[in-house]
Model the fold of this input.
Amino acid sequence: MAKSKTKSYVLTLKLKTETWQEHVLEKRFEIARKLYNACLRECLKRYKKLQHDSQYKQVIQQPKSKEKNKILNELYRFYGVTEYAMHDFIKPMRYPFKKHIDSHTAQKIATRAWLAFEKLAFGNANQVYFKKQNEMDSLEGKTNDTGIRFKDGHLLWNELSIPVIVRKNDIYAHLALQDRIKYCRIVRKCIRGKIKYYLQLVLEGIPPKKFNKETGEVKHPLGQGDVGIDIGTQTIAICSTNDVKLLVLAPSVENIEKQKRLLLRKLDRQRRANNPHKYNEDGTIKTDNKEKWIWSKNYIKTKNQLAELQRKMTDKRKQDHHRLANWMITLGDCFKVETMNFQALQKRAKETKVDANGTYKKKKRFGKSIANRAPSMFLSILRQKLQYENKTLRLIDTFSVKASQYDHHSNEYKKKTLSQRWHETNGCKVQRDLYSAFLIMNVKDNLKEIDQQKCVDRWKQFIHLHDKEIKRLRLCPCVLSSMGV
Done:
């Protein structure tokens, strides 16, 4: 079945489940987990056979070419290392469970296992992970005609009919349900210690506009003009012709970090108390000890508390990102941002360095702050919202533009250290991130050069908005040291 190229969005609705229905769903999720693991295991098994093939060993060392790809595709098909081969593999395995798992859902499970393996095969992952018990938390179909489907306000799936909660005053949901449903997905979540089920409808088109109930106006209309974004690991600087802001990404997450740290320390103490046989005298784990770990009831309780805290962090972070993106699209319609490799910033430094006092510098970089603030996730959300308006998030060439080093008055580049948070130009002191966002806003259409004339024309308005924002930040209690305010 060919993939649809039309735009789509997701509507999430809660299911009104009875206890016996929850037991049926739990059983089906567990069957799906075992089918997924079987498919993943078979992928690895076939791939191992392929790697021992002498022809494959010769071809894989050749430089990239169409001929090489053609031979590799033939070898993949011969050894059954393809997505559709996995569909054939799962077909007889599903048959004993046909009362629970339909053919379309089984094919999607096989596709999911294949996509996980594909990352390993093409070098985008170091290993694949099998699903442990209760780790399979979503199942989906291929169409809304058979298998998992939504009809007349109910979820229908293999003799299972569960009412879907759609509130009468939820105007957004009622407008969304007028669009064509591509396929459905059942999601299982543990919220405050209780299992809840949700139905996600993947709908064709773009999300309905949200209106102000009192005035009837569109809540977040698309603005006009250029917008420059300088995004960091924890902060984001935004510059447009009408507004300049320096904000903390996902500010709601800050209050949870301390609780998370305390729970992790508590888990470590409980783990060590329950499993003294698994640790060496110096506190390290015995690698040769293959005995099972012992988990006490209190340990499981603490682990569930940590999982609930992580869920809250995820929901709050996503909510903050959506709010910020909704506000940002009102500033303009031409968004520019530097290309950033956040995955590389998460990794530890390779070189061992020593400071002036002779002490070793930490190899840790920005992994923790990136995990908490999720800057890449924010850019994905902003990109998606712009696509609904037929606009794109334009990525400028970081190495050509060098926004953090450029001075538009002197038209020169001067390298700065990371600790230098202020830039002096034309007798004015400007915050480094805000000035970078201003320069990014004025990048030419080729995305490789800064338009100096635009910078000169817009400078007066920028410096006025810049000073106004700095005054606000100095009165704000939640300011990070990296802002330099």
The first helix runs from residue 19 to 51.
